Amino acid sequence: MRALIEKLQKDPEDIKTLQGIIPICTSCKKIRDDMGIWNHIEAYSIVHYQTKFTHGTCPECAKKFIWNNFNK
Ligand SMILES: [Zn+2]
Fold it and tell me: 72 CA to middle of ligand 1, Å?
């Protein structure tokens, strides 16, 4: 336990993760869990309602975005 606290004091990025700041796709509102899987927010937020969201784009929407820009 003490080792964990020491690690967190040295590594602020880990604290962010533990506090539950997770990526959310700005396009389809899916969110990525700690396993790297994108879930629909309705399903996820029931379990993780205390988490804060940080915005990003899931691979699916990233592909769509690139595709749309190439076809303009
Ligand atoms: Zn998306």
Answer: 20
Determine the distance separating the centroid of ligand 1 and the alpha carbon of 53, expressed in angstroms: 14
Task: Give me ligand 1 centre to Cα 47, in Å.
Answer: 20
Spell out where the chain has E strands.
21-25, 30-32, 38-40, 52-56
Kindly list the structural domains of the chain, giving each domain's residue range(s) and its CATH number in brackets, ordered by start: 20-70 (3.30.1490)
Q: What letter represents residue 58's amino acid? A: C
pLDDT one-digit tens code per residue, 12-38: 555 455 556 678 888 888 888 778 888
- Please report the pLDDT score of residue 36 as a whole number: 83
In the reported structure, the alpha carbon of residue 9 is separated from the centroid of ligand 1 by a whole-number distance in angstroms of 33
Distance of alpha carbon 49 from alpha carbon 17, whole angstroms: 15
